[in-house]
Amino acid sequence: MRYLVFFEQGDTNYSAYVPDLPVCVAVGDTLEETRREISEAIKFHIECLQEDGETVPKPTSKLPNQTPSGVSAEFVSIELKSKKQIVLPSYQHVSR
Fold this sequence. Notes:
With 96 residues, this protein is α+β, with helices and mostly antiparallel strands.
C-alpha cells in the first residue's frame, strides 16, 4: 500500500502528515527519521481502524500538481501484516 505524505522542514526538525488519514502525523530530527516514523504511524493508524471495525480510507493515487513552499510530497509504501482469525475449540467439563 502507498499513501501520499507531505513533509515539511521546520527550524529544528521535520514533520509529516497523511491527508488520507486524518490525525496521522510524525516528526523527526532528520528527513529519514521522519520517513521511518510516518511509516510506523500509518501502520499503527490502519491497525487501529481495523481493530475498531472502521473503514480504512483508500490511498490517493496521484501526487498533487503543486505543494506550498517548503512542503514536499511523496508516496510512502507500507506493508501491513496480515492478521488471521482462528477459532480454538472450547472444552466443557463433563461431570461423571
